[in-house]
Structure to design on (155 residues):
């Protein structure tokens, strides 16, 4: 399932936020621990719900989220005051806590009590270049015809 929302007008590629100006987009991919295929509508909705408030709380703006069976792709932007690793830790921590709180049975499939795998994929995207390519890739997650394209991002 694909979720797309824009909190700001993204036709304006320059993000002006308080005293900062930036033009950095990020493609982030997170994988469920042990590559378990446990995403369903309920888990996806929890993740999306938690991401909606990230701009106001953390200055992390989610624009597109695409789910496959065992991993999720995000197109987002955040101010350079954060490192990519910091943003990913925030995303993983908040979403995992909420999933375990609302669906405790998920833990039976994930030994050790972790929802996300330790690794991740992150890349920067120019708002003036390949942002649309990544956005289309995320929108087409889970489609069998796109399997060849998925191999472009082997981890």
């Amino acid at each position: 399932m694909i979720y797309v929302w824009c909190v700001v007008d993204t036709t304006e590629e320059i993000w002006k936020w308080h005293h900062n100006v930036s033009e950095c987009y990020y493609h982030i991919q997170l994988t469920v621990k042990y590559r378990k295929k446990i995403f369903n509508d309920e888990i996806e909705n929890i993740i999306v719900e938690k991401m909606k408030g990230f701009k106001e709380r953390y200055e992390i703006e989610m624009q597109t989220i695409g789910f496959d069976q065992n991993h999720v792709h995000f197109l987002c932007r955040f101010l350079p005051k954060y490192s990519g690793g910091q943003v990913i830790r925030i995303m993983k921590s908040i979403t995992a806590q909420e999933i375990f709180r609302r669906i405790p049975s998920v833990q039976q499939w994930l030994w050790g009590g972790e929802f996300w795998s330790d690794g991740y994929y992150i890349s920067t995207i120019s708002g003036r270049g390949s942002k649309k390519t990544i956005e289309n890739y995320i929108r087409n997650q889970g489609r069998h015809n796109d399997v060849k394209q998925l191999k472009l991002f082997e981890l």
